Amino acid sequence: MERIGFIGLGIMGKPMAANLLAAGFPLTVHNRSRAPMEELAARGAATADSPAALAATSDVVITMLPDSPDVEAVVLGEQGVLSSIRAGCLFIDCSTIAPASARRIAAALAERGVEAIDAPVSGGELAAREGTLSIMCGGSAEALARARPIFAVLGSRTTHVGAAGAGQVTKAANQIVVALTIQAVAEALTLARKAGVEAARVREALLGGFAQSRILEAHGQRMLEGAFEPGFKLRLHRKDLGIALELGRERQVPLFGTAQVAELMDALLAHGAGERDHSALALLYERLSALGGPGGG
Amino acid sequence: MERIGFIGLGIMGKPMAANLLAAGFPLTVHNRSRAPMEELAARGAATADSPAALAATSDVVITMLPDSPDVEAVVLGEQGVLSSIRAGCLFIDCSTIAPASARRIAAALAERGVEAIDAPVSGGELAAREGTLSIMCGGSAEALARARPIFAVLGSRTTHVGAAGAGQVTKAANQIVVALTIQAVAEALTLARKAGVEAARVREALLGGFAQSRILEAHGQRMLEGAFEPGFKLRLHRKDLGIALELGRERQVPLFGTAQVAELMDALLAHGAGERDHSALALLYERLSALGGPGGG
């Protein structure tokens, strides 16, 4: 089995690394803070003090980090992966970052004879723990084939969408659809309730027709219950929309809807809702329609 | 079997009336233009020269008309249904109109001892022909029970959502979700294509996760193929969003997303796209991102 080095043991990264360890992969881990490293060390993982030290003893390096600058620093920076990784190794980035950044990293690694896969995931913490993530991959078919046994542990569905960066483009598209569908459901259910119709019945009726979606089912139910503990945090979804909007500017695609939802999310973030589930977008509608005032109903 | 009077033999109304006739209901029809009346007369329907004449010989009056003013005129106007309908009859409006209008009509009929159901449908012309419409009903449980044998012919799913007007509120909610989901899919697939990723693969990848919806499946496929013959016409969806926005103003719900999509639809209508399928919203993104110019890609 390939020796795996895993960098970034956050909410998503830690359970992903733990699953690889449980599946029998020899694992070395690195993280900025020590606590999660020690937790995995207690279960049999080796630890490394820097990305460079980790890459020196790994066949496959996986990163799961917050944003583009984090991945660039860990790969291209001082004591970074690039400084020690050997030709013939494989690099897999599961973070959600800008496609341009993913391509830069892939190009730098390619010069060292290292193939890169951008492999952002969806499904959240629960799917990370259960190994049922949906994985969107950009990279060569050969690199993908090599990574399959690893993805089989991490996720239940892996889609190869194109060359380096394509996984990140697909993830951006995914986050656009999820954000706008949440807005759609929030507007529809708030309107129904304020117009005196039981929102639960409306959700039920809509699930039977063209308005059906997984968001209406899952996040619609969250809105009915006011159950806004994450799930997927609003501030992280906002970060992902920033990537989508940047890509839209680069490619001259006017993302009217995405831009608007990002603004609405910012309004919620300004009121401290960033740690709530992204379905909490409904709170904005709830609050604004409860303002009352002259002529208020 | 109850004697049915059917008013409004348009794209939706004609196949609905034909299905009731085929199911054995004694049927009288009325329409502004004569051609569809004669077509149904040839298959055994009686015809009436006015809504009043039709209502005088019917136990159940059904309307399927373009908009609120049409239904109000046919029911409340000169030679209208209200002038001749007898106590104990049932009125069913399958049009998509303003909830306030539906309530006004129900109140006027109630004074004459006539119960009303607002029963807007979704599923389009195909479902109208096949008798597989999804029907969203507002009215009393007793009226609904009485209408069941009729709805069983017209649709495959009938949901009772509340009192008079609730069906129209639900339909407005439905049209909001459908419009914003179409926008979501249009932004996501246009962005993916302009960023060099095959949109078909992105659609496929997204269908496996939280971005899944019937719109992504059906209308996403239309966008990939550029297949914008209706379906459901853009101008009719825009009309329905007008009802939703009016309801939002009445109930003080700020429908940011709905308002924006309505504006974008207006831009397309101004360019003559009103007779296309509502998934043609994607054309707007397609065209704007193809403008090029200085720095254009």
Short description:
Helices cover 53% and strands 13% of the residues of chain A.
Pick out its properties.
homodimer; 297 residues; Rossmann fold; N-(1-d-carboxylethyl)-l-norvaline Dehydrogenase, domain 2; 2 domains; six-stranded parallel sheet; three-stranded mixed sheet
Describe the structure.
The structure is a homodimer of 297-residue chains. By secondary structure, chain A is α/β, with parallel strands linked by helices. Chain A has two domains: 161 residues, NAD(P)-binding Rossmann-like Domain (Rossmann fold, 3-Layer(aba) Sandwich), CATH 3.40.50; 120 residues, Orthogonal Bundle (N-(1-d-carboxylethyl)-l-norvaline Dehydrogenase, domain 2). In chain A, 53% of the residues lie in helices and 13% in strands. In chain A, the strands form two sheets. The first copy, chain A, has a six-stranded parallel sheet, sandwiched between helices. A three-stranded mixed sheet of chain A has the order 7-8-9. In chain A, strand 4, helix 4 and strand 5 form a beta-alpha-beta unit. In chain A, helix 8 packs across helix 9 and helix 8 runs parallel beside helix 13. The radius of gyration of chain A is 21 Å and the shape is elongated. At the A-B interface, strand 9, helix 8, helix 9, helix 10 and helix 11 of A face strand 9, helix 8, helix 9, helix 10 and helix 11 of B.
